[in-house]
Amino acid sequence: MTDFKRTLITTALPYANGPIHIGHLAGVYVPADIYARYLRLKNEDVLMIGGSDEHGVPITLKAKNEGVTPQDIVDRYHNIIKESFQKFGISFDVYSRTSSKTHHETAAEFFKKLYDTGKFIEKTSEQYYDEENNQFLADRYIIGTCPKCGFEKAYGDQCESCGTSLSPTELINPTSMISGNQPVLKETKHWYLPLDQYETWLKEWILEGHKEWKPNVYGQVKSWIDSGLQPRAVTRDLNWGVPVPVEGVEGKVLYVWFDAPIGYISATKELTPEWETYWKDPETRMLHFIGKDNIVFHCIIFPTMLKAEGTFNLPENVPANEFLNLENDKISTSRNWAVWLHEYLEEFPGKEDVLKYVLTANAPETKDNDFTWKDFQTRNNNELVAILGNFVNRALVLTHKYFDGEVPAPGELTNYDKETLESISAIKAEVEKSLDSFRIREALKNAMDLARLGNKYLADEEPWKVYKTDVERVKTILNICLQISANLTICLEPFLPFSMERLRGFLNFTKQDWSKLGWTNLIPESHKLNKPELLFEKIEDSVIEVQLKKLMDTKKANELAEAKAKPAKDSIEFDDFGKMDIRVGTVLEAEKVAKTKKLLKLKIDTGFDKRTVVSGIAEYYKPEDLIGKQVSILVNLEPKKLRGIESQGMILCAENADGSLSIVEPDKKVKSGSEIR
């Protein structure tokens, strides 16, 4: 095994067309942050690199829909994302962006070297072109009918109804999203990275040389290589991105998949003039923390780019995670089915570590996993509060109660005392073993075993009882508990940094490096403790119910948005329609019908009389809000008794997809009795 001098950690660049959600955090940023903090505690040379991915078609589409520039979009979301990461405590050494000048220059230089050394192949192909707007259309700018399922708004690259990957030419009745016209096929020239030429090398480098990679990563890479690799375009016709640095080429940019990973390099350049040490020195270990949707880019395509360039290190490991679902449904930005980080930080102030803990304990390391608000509450209350918080609080409170907040000197140790203290080093070894293998979820469980150890020891020894007969023994018990508490501030620092900072404050204890974990004399006798507070607090059912309602409201809104109108009824003769006499009436009185939930009794001025109408709108309108309101009323409907009240007509309502009713009314006030034609 290579003994590296330093580690470069890269984290997948979040796409700057929306905020960060828990899926991003669980898949990439929380595990990367834990690992980086662990290495820093070991005093290792480590850099953690991040930034926003700001090019590509979805951003131009969003800008077009909002009537702003792509730069406006990426500025907005880059700032939201960066601020959210900072508040949440993701400890980037640099968080940059791909619209920066440094990145454009770095990406252009990288492309130019491969271009000048003949590493690309040139191909001319036919692509859809919008003649009215004089531009080639990216796949996402084309919609049409899916040939697989018949969905009428499938994109040129994928049908979001059935999930089938498509090419634009497969669409039935393709339409330009820019002009609304049918596009034409036109020849265009692009450059391609010939992945097929690197198949033999990739097999040797990954399939033979990196069998230690996680099974989900290794398996996906093997499947791609075994299926045969094809040349992949590195340029596209678009006006937003890094311009292709070739003379005589206009309206072409680097494909976003090509320029985005170069963002790791440009961000490191911005951070330090010694950037080449982290990218080109063979004694640097490079790790890519990503989600499974990025495996092919970071294990096949980006390494091929680096290999073709010839001077850069290749990744030593790519510990990719699977996906996190939300309440048994796939997280979706477009459907707003997510827990957004910036909203969580506002709604759960001071609980950054609670979310980190739950996402780590539930990390989708080898298969997709599910986040539920009930599990969030349970883990907080039953683990953080009842185990970790309970232990340190009792140890501190008892020390203040019995020894005025001063660390007591230990006496002679029992066998149980010795076993307990020896277990700290054993737990340290297990945590290290898990972290070094990128089993972050397992590492957290092992680290929490230290809190479980302390909790069990305190419960077994019962110093509150022993104090009545043996004060000296209580000194030993509490000293051991405080040494465990001090060790917890090291062991859990990578996982719960905000909480461990607070705990160090209670202990009046400075931050220690990883080598001190396992020491049983971290806090000297007579050391003065500060007044403790609760490290964690219970989360009540009412708090969780608010979050669940928020999700249910989102689900209802999505169902409404996706609901299709009922088909039209059978045709009728014009004379049939003419028989209906619909007028504008004004509500004079309104009251609920006793012992009913849905019925209101209305008195309506029809212009030629004042009549009573019973209407089933009580769930949607308060009686007092209807007074003076104008309605559409069918006046020649045969009267009918409802709950003993004769109803003399029917007011017209629109029924929404969820069954809710809205009164049909004129958009401006008219004379009562006006006919509706």
UniProtKB/TrEMBL annotation:
NCBIfam families from the UniProt entry: metG (TIGR00398), metG_C_term (TIGR00399), PRK00133.1 (NF001100)
CDD domains cross-referenced by the UniProt entry: Anticodon_Ia_Met, MetRS_core, tRNA_bind_EcMetRS_like
Enzyme Commission designation: 6.1.1.10
Record family assignment: Belongs to the class-I aminoacyl-tRNA synthetase family. MetG type 1 subfamily.
Protein name in UniProt: Methionine--tRNA ligase
Short motif ('KMSKS' region): ranges: 330-334
GO biological process, one term: methionyl-tRNA aminoacylation
GO CC terms in record: cytosol
Reaction catalyzed: tRNA(Met) + L-methionine + ATP = L-methionyl-tRNA(Met) + AMP + diphosphate
Protein source organism: Maribellus comscasis
Cofactor binding: number and manner: Binds 1 zinc ion per subunit.
Annotated ATP binding sites: 333
Gene3D superfamilies: HUPs, Isoleucyl-tRNA Synthetase, Domain 1, Methionyl-tRNA synthetase, Zn-domain, Nucleic acid-binding proteins
Function of the molecule: Is required not only for elongation of protein synthesis but also for the initiation of all mRNA translation through initiator tRNA(fMet) aminoacylation.
InterPro entries named in the record: aa-tRNA-synth_I_CS, Anticodon_Met, Met-tRNA-synth_bsu_C, Met-tRNA_ligase_1, Met-tRNA_synth, Methionyl/Leucyl_tRNA_Synth, MetRS_core, MetRS_Zn
Assembly and binders: Homodimer.
Cofactor(s) the record lists: Zn(2+)
Any Pfam family: tRNA_bind
GO MF annotations, alphabetized: ATP binding; metal ion binding; methionine-tRNA ligase activity; tRNA binding
Amino-acid positions noted as binding Zn(2+) in the UniProt annotation, renumbered to this chain: 146, 149, 159, 162
Subcellular location(s) per record: Cytoplasm
Superkingdom of the source species: Bacteria
Key words of the record: Aminoacyl-tRNA synthetase, ATP-binding, Cytoplasm, Ligase, Metal-binding, Nucleotide-binding, Protein biosynthesis, RNA-binding, tRNA-binding, Zinc
Motif ('HIGH' region): 14-24
Predominant subcellular localization, coarse grouping: cytoplasm
Residue stretches making up the TRNA-binding domain: 576-677
